[in-house]
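Morning F.,

Quick status update on the modeling queue. The single chain you submitted on Monday has been processed. Sequence for confirmation:
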Amino acid sequence: MNNNDKKLRKQKTFFLDRFPYIIFILIIGLTLLIFFIVKDKLPLSFFSKKPVAVVAENSFDLYFASPAKNQSFDFVSINETVPIEIKGKDIENNNNYNLNIYINSKLVKTLNASPFKFNWNPSQTGAYDIYAEITDKNNKVVYASEKIPFAVDIKGANSAESTSLENVNIEEKKNKILEKTSYRSQNAPPIFALKCYTPPVIDGNLDDWNLYEKFSSFTPTILKENYTNAKDCSGVFSSCWDKDNYYFFIKVTDDVYNQPYNTNQINKGDSVVFVIDTELEKDFNIPFLNGDDFQIEFSAGDNSGSAPESFVRWPSNAPLKGAILASKKYSGGYTIEGSIPWYAMPAVTAADELVMGFTVSIFDTDNMESTELVVSSSKQFDFNNVSTLGTLILIDVGDLQKDSQSSSTTETTKGN
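C-alpha cells below.
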C-alpha cells in the first residue's frame, strides 16, 4: 500500500470517527434556532418554576345598573341627585381593588367595598358621560369600563343661586334636625357646617369665614394635667361644605410653636387632628375604628417654614389625596385653612342634614420632643374609641353670602 492510499484511508477513518460529534453539534444548533424562533410565543410561566398569575382585563364583569345608557333625568331642583350603581362580581368583597368613578373625565368618587352605589348631585343642566376604572393597591389601572352617556335637565334652574333656600329660620331647622337625630349629646354640643354657595378662598385668612358658625369650646382631654390656660393652647374652628368638598378654618392659640416633623410624623409636633365617623347611625354602638372612619392630621408647616401638610393616619396611612391647604404662623399661634374632597371619604354623600361623628383636636408640644397636651372639641376623647366622638351636621340654610349682600344693600338704602 503506497503512501497516497494510506493518507486516503486515514482521512476516511478520521471523518467516520467524528461523524457522531458532527451530528450532535448540528442537532444542538437546530434546537437553539427553533427555541429562539418560538420563545416569544411561550407564556412567562414556561421559564419559571412558579406559575405567574395573570389577570386578564376581560375577566372583570363590570356594568352600570344606573344610569342606563342615554338615560335622561328631569329634575325640578338643583338639590336632586342621579343614582349611581355599579355591579361587578369580581371585585365585590375584594379588598385588593378600588373602583374610581369618573363623570366627564373628572374623578367624583372612589369606592373600595360593595355595594358600589352613591348619589351624585349635578351642578347644572347638560350632557354627561360616566365610566369606572378598577385599580389595584398600587393605583395601577387593570380595567376601564365603557363610557355611559346620560343627560340632566333641571327645570327652571340656570344657576345655583336660583335654587338656593330662602327665608330659613336657622335655629328652628337645627332643632328639628336634633329632635329626629341620634347623636352623642353627652360628648359635646353638635358642630354645624353650613352649606356654602361660593367656596372660601384657601389662603389662610379669615376673610371668607365671617358668615359661618364658630366653635371655641375646646377642652383638655389627653395629658390634661399639663393644661394651664387658653393662652397655652386653644382654638376657634369653623367649617362649611358644598357637593364637592368639606372646607375648614382653624385659628390656634399656642404660645410656643414647635413642629420639627413632616409627612407621617406630623402628629408628634404641633398639629390639628380630625377624627370622623362617616356613618354615625350605623356605628353608634361600635367603639372601635372601622372602614368608614377617618383620622386626618394637619400641620401648618415645620420649623423651617415648609408648606402645610396633611396625613391620613386611618385607614390608609398615606397623605390626604386632593386636599388644598394654606397656613399662616404668627406670634402666639397659627392658622390652617383647607378643603377636603368628599371622594377622599368614599362613604360620604354630602347632603343637607347629614349627621356624622366628629372631633377636632389640637396637639401641643411646646419645646418637648413629644405631645405635651391635647385639647378637643369633645369633653372626653380617646383616639381609639369612636364612641367618644362629638357630632358634625351638614345643613343648608340658603346662600348666606347673597343674603348678606342683600342686607348690606338694604341698610345702605335706608341710610341714604
